[in-house]
Please model this.
Amino acid sequence: MEESLSIVETPAGLIVFEGDEAEPYLFKSVDEAAEHYRGTIPQGVAAFLRSWRGRSIMVERRSLAEALTRLGLKPVVEEPLKKAVELRADVEKTLRILGLSMSDYRGFAAKVAARLAQARVEELAKSSDLDIVIAMQAYDELVKMLNILQDRIMIWVKEREPRLLEEGKDAEKIVKRIVSSNTPGYVRRIAELYLETEDCRGVVEKHISMLMDEAAPNLSAVIGPLLGARLISKTGSLSRLASLPASTIQILGAEKALFRALRKRGRPPKHGIIFQHPYVHTCPRKIRGKVARLLASRIAVAARVDCFSGRFIGEELKKDVENRLKALKEGLG
Model:
């Protein structure tokens, strides 16, 4: 009867266990190690594993399982892998099997980590997702600036020109009146800066819409370009958003409330960032959780199609959300 096989990954190499027998493979270079951890089986590793082709083998990472399948092995994912847990608890045993000193092991591991981090940064730099994240951060900062400038202007108006409030409470109209009136120079300059910042915010918003139409048209169609960009900015990339289940997307942005609920055994939040969508915040409180769940499920579908397919089904998804929302509201009546 054949002994069970397990592959334990370490920063410096692989260890294949056949029962209690261990056979190590040391990475020949930092590049080879980085290639392995990015999901490609290097030639040296492939040659090492060839003798076990056709046999079942336990692994801990799903991405490694996919690569081993292409190599002709029969991987079985076990999270956590028992052998890996044992070696992580006994570093000295790992070093003995690999035939390395602690200093050599740590030095190589640090170089591999740096190479992987560099590769990830380069990957993000080439991605349009990064442009969306940067633009969304700029948009949020401009909104903060507008709020600060508006507060400063309204304080002056209440104290020195309250008649402007009597004529109307529209902040933008009041600002424009201040710019064209004989007010102190510094107040007029703050008002001008407000209008310039508002124009800049509009430019950034148009740019975000353009980026979303190119990178995530389905997501943009379902929830709008700004909210879609905010979700991508929150997760870091479209691919990361696409990998999340709908239940996680539903509460993105409400992490503090979730952890507080878990700590105090209170009610978990029903929604996070997606509360900003009018379908959620304008619906009756009784069905708000259901609407948030519905919207999150369609966001998940839209993000995955944008990331992996490229087909446009945004209008279908949006219409589906509208029809189901209508049914939910009719159910209340």
Summary: The first strand starts at residue 5 and ends at 10. The mean pLDDT is 90. The chain has three domains: 5-125, 128-215, 216-333.
